[in-house]
Amino acid sequence: MLRFFRQNSFRSLGGAQGRVLGIALALGTALLVLAIFSPHYMSLDNFIVVAMQLSFIGIASLGMAGLIISGNVDLSIGSLFALTSVCAALVAKSAPPLLAISAAIVLGGAIGWCNGAMVWRMKLSPLIVTLGSLAILKGIVLLLTGGYAVRGVPKEFGTFGQTRLLGLPMPVCALLVLAAATQFILARTTIGRHLFAIGGSREACTAVGIPVRRLILGMFMINGCLVGFSAALAASRYGSASPSFGTGLELDVITAVVLGGVAFAGGEGSLIGVMLAVILLAVINSGIVSLRIDPHWAEVLKGGALIFAVGLDQLSQETRERYRKLMAMRGS
């Protein structure tokens, strides 16, 4: 039985290869259009700016990818991003930068764990629980700040987010390291295989002794930690934190994850596809600005991409189900 789950997890990981290729082609097409109609977009400096902007969404997408693969989702990450960035900025006013960043990570992990515990204990849909958390956290941020940005953060706090390594901004370096680690965990470890198996069939995993509760709670917590770290990086990079930080983040992240080939129902996905989708959406957003098109079109495209990706997943699942039924009828 365990052998079945291992094999199934690898098939799930590789099942999104077609989507990865499609996203790569779309990204190449978008860059080609920009190279023709906006040649200045193709400069190295502009690519670094785009990479820095997408890094915060990219880091948050890593945890969300693991959550959705396991059959869960967290809609509260936008408000969580705002709360943890404000927390980091407030702590940085009276404590060392490392402590401020650690506080944001711990707070994000604690809130993520609480979301997971409510989902597990109350047997409610994660959509409902985390939607409620989104509203609660947003209210707490506004109560803490009065609706104003947190300013006057010490320069030492900004040093971390504004540092460059090998010419790359720190947020980009952090994304590269965390993405490589996440890919290794999902593709090469028992934990990764179990997450895919849980997304495929939680009941079957429980029956064979996989620690489903521990993994789900841990995934919610890790997702919160990554959002907190991304928020602390943003506050450090910009030298301030605002209640508006993270607005729309949940849409950006979930769109990138699902568009990248992670099945919204769980059990299937590719982190490479997710990262390519993050890049594609960032190129579209920045390209629209570069081509002087109404920026509101970016929201239209993101919403359309999310609906398209979820619809494609649903059609794929229905096709596979019909194929299984047909094979079962032939076998009988």
Describe the structure.
- The chain has 332 residues and is an all-alpha fold.
- It has one domain (2-331): ABC transporter involved in vitamin B12 uptake, BtuC (Orthogonal Bundle).
- It has helices at residues 2-14, 17-37, 44-69, 77-92, 97-122, 126-145, 155-162, 170-188, 190-200, 202-207, 212-238, 249-259, 271-290, 296-331, and strands spanning 164-165, 168-169.
- The chain has a two-stranded antiparallel ribbon with strand order 1-2.
- The two termini are 23 Å apart.
- Residues 1-15 have low confidence and may be disordered.
Number of strands: 2
CATH topology: ABC transporter involved in vitamin B12 uptake, BtuC
Across the major sheet, the strand order is 1-2
User: Which spans of ≥5 residues are poorly predicted at pLDDT below 50?
Assistant: 1-15
Strand count, sense and barrel status of the largest sheet are:
2 strands, antiparallel
CATH class value: Mainly Alpha
Number of domains: 1
Overall shape: it is globular
What is the residue-averaged pLDDT? 88
**Structural class, judged by helices and strands?**
mainly alpha
Helix content: over 70%
Radius of gyration: 20 Å
Strand fraction:
under 5%
What is the level-2 CATH architecture name? Orthogonal Bundle
The N- and C-terminal alpha carbons lie at a distance of 23 Å
Give the helices and strands as they follow along the chain. HHHHHHHEEHHHHHHH
Count of individual helical segments? 14
Question: Gist?
Answer:
The protein is mainly α and 332 residues long. It has helices at 2-14, 17-37, 44-69, 77-92, 97-122, 126-145, 155-162, 170-188, 190-200, 202-207, 212-238, 249-259, 271-290, 296-331, and strands spanning 164-165, 168-169.
